Amino acid sequence: MNVLLIADGDIKYGASHSLFQMAKELSSFYEINIQIVMPVTAGFKGELDTGIKVLYIRYSPFYQGIPADRWKFPIKYIVRGIMYWFGRICAVNELEKQLDIHKIDLIHSNSSREDLGALIANKYKIPLIWHIREFGDRDYSCYSYRKNYIDYMNQSACRFIAVSDAVRAHWIKKGIQREKINCVYNGISQRDIVIKSEDALICNNKQLRMALLGCISSTKGQAWAIEAIKKLADEKIYISLDIIGDGAKAYIKKLKKKIYGYGLQDLIAFKGYLKNPGEQLYQYDIGLMCSKDEGFGRVTVEYMMAGLCVIASDTGANKELIEDGESGLIYQYGNTESLVNTIKKCIDNPEDRSRIAKCGCIRANQEFTAERNAKRICEIYKSILEHVEK
């Protein structure tokens, strides 16, 4: 089976990590011949460590997020539009020079944002899977350069994969055909995670450490976490927070100004982007997921696998990944008091925190593994090709 995976521009965070993990598993354990197409602007060079070939093409997404600095939107709308329309004219021809597309059995687009996979699939009559990893409008305020893009997606794809039931329901409501879309949770490899030691799960004699991992943006909730640390400090409750990731410099500057204004610089630190965060999460006690609407929450599962007690907002797919009070704790998004009170539960009840962390680790290793994800994806591949052959 020859599969062409189409990536979008991000290589640092969830979507690309999930794609690479999925490709490695499918290639290594199911003997599927995979090639990956990436935009030249992605910043990734070379092959994956499994020897999977990566091709570089000039193309841009048709489905874009509104920038954090809204005043830039009119300019970016024009520039991105030119890049998209010019890119879609050239991208297929560019790919044809690097690849014998006639040998491809299946095309798998890794993002709802790009339509290069659909362009190739429609031209060569190859089955297309469209992977939907985000809400789009709810989490990133996305807009489309394609009119009636839902109709185009329905017409182009023989199957859609949503990373959670929440994402699936949202896109069905937008118009994606219900019978075509399946939920397949992302998979995380246990090999990439260092697990917290049994002795470290309960710590009564030291200040607790929290981690908030992910792209730094207003939708990821770093500002809410800072407000929570401020309220706790006002009550003489001190807990440290490391913000791990990168993002728009102007927004990070705004957050740092807030931290210094509150006098929290000794409690809150920016650690920058970490290529392999799973190797360092064991140092923390609590993992925060404060996003406005998380389509899946790869970070949440990484926290769980590492043995952290997860505190997550009641939005997106969070309530699918963790069971409140059992494998994690849920608070009300946008309610600082709710977040503060949930953090207090972790501080005041170390035994309960330890129990929840252990249950979360067990759940993550049962439900959200790379092996489980690859098995389900392979089954979908086979069912599509069997139908085509008939």
Describe the protein's architecture and organization:
The structure is a single chain. This protein is an alpha/beta fold. 42% of the residues lie in helices and 17% in strands. The mean pLDDT is 91.
Task: Record the SSE blueprint.
Layout (H helix, E strand, L loop, with lengths): L1 E5 L7 H16 L3 E7 L13 E5 L5 E3 L7 H26 L7 E4 L6 H9 L3 E5 L4 H4 L1 E3 L4 H8 L2 E4 L2 H10 L6 E3 L25 E5 L8 H13 L5 E5 L4 H14 L5 E5 L13 E4 L8 H9 L2 E5 L4 H4 L7 E3 L4 H13 L1 H18 L2 H20 L1
Parallel strand pairs: 1-2, 1-5, 2-3, 5-6, 6-8, 8-9, 10-11, 10-13, 11-12, 13-14, 14-15
Antiparallel strand pairs: 4-7
- What proportion of the residues form beta strands (DSSP E)? 15-25%
Q: Can you tell me the overall shape? A: globular
Helix content: 40-55%
Q: What do the pLDDT scores average to?
A: 91
Oligomer: single chain
CA-atom Rg in angstroms: 21 Å
Uncertain runs:
none
Specify the biggest β-sheet: 7 strands, parallel
